[in-house]
Amino acid sequence: MARQNYSMVSEFILLGLTESHELQILLFFFFSIIYTAIVLGNLTIIYVVKVDPQLHSPMYFLLANLSFIDMSLASFATPKMICDLLREYKAISYEGCMIQMFFLHLLGGSEMMLLVAMAIDRYIAICKPLHYKTIMSHRVCIGLALLSWTTGFVHTMSQMIFTATLPFCGPNVVDSFFCDLPRVIKLACTDTYVLELLVIADSGVLSLFCFIVLLISYSIILINVQHRSTSRSSKALSTLSAHITVVVLFFGPCIFIYVWPFSSISIDKILSVFYTIFTPLLNPLIYTFRNKDMKKAIKKIKTKHVNFVSTF
């Protein structure tokens, strides 16, 4: 009702990443390969964790959830962006724009909380190993996953409930490859100063707060790891380094975009590409190729598949 009463804009024009036709063709093939790798990589992690009994542990349960969120995060805008690279007229409907912003903050908020849950899991596993199975029960793992999705839902609704009622009467050009909330609300035909502060307070502070909590958590874990035996320390450090790498790759661009007020449009575009496309690709690479258990499980499944095929 609010859109019908106040908004005269039925679609938004996305300027995309570049105006160069030659570069658009190159980016089309590049991002098509990247997106395919993201989907296949994260689906592989989910499948391997599901079928291998050795990976039925809290850490891999949370990792499979992270892979699902990453795959979804890469899918909310990337397929349309790839198609738009071959189009002259890059437009998105009003409803499609709202849906993109909804899912971006739903998935982004969920991933932030899930990374915190993964840090809690590693803290208990390393600092309280004797109580790990008792504390990190299946019910607790389900609860942490639901909490991450609930956080994402509350996070996105706290912003979208106001954004969806804004009047848009032109201009309708968004200088990005997807509907980015800070850029879209600036196009509204009303004063959005308070809403812009809300976006910074909600997205920026949440990102910064979670990032600080994670840094403190992993610092405490690393201090405890130094007092362990050499073999256990090396395995724990390998796992922690993978987690910390993912945290920095995900939170770095988010904090810069929503907290740092002096970033340019071109820098914001690069960072947006990074956390919506490259981070979901790097996560399976980091967790798969740095994790011995995961590599062993993939090899085992591959061997079973080859043996099954060879019987026919």
Protein topology:
Layout (H helix, E strand, L loop, with lengths): L1 H5 L4 E4 L6 H31 L6 H18 L2 H7 L6 E3 H34 L4 H4 L2 H26 L9 E2 L6 H5 L7 H33 L4 H30 L5 H25 L2 H19 L2
Q: What would you say this structure looks like, in words?
A:
The protein is mainly α. The protein has one domain (2-307): Rhopdopsin 7-helix transmembrane proteins. The longest helix is centred in the middle third of the chain and has 34 residues, at 94-127. It contains twelve helices and three strands. Residues 1-5 have low confidence and may be disordered. It has a three-stranded mixed β-sheet with strand order 2-1-3.
CATH class categorisation = Mainly Alpha
- The level of helicity is over 70%
Major β-sheet strand ordering: 2-1-3
Order of helices and strands: HEHHHEHHHEHHHHH
In short:
With 312 residues, this protein is mainly α.
Q: Main traits of this protein?
A:
single chain, mainly alpha, 12 helices, 312 residues, three-stranded mixed sheet, Rhopdopsin 7-helix transmembrane proteins, globular
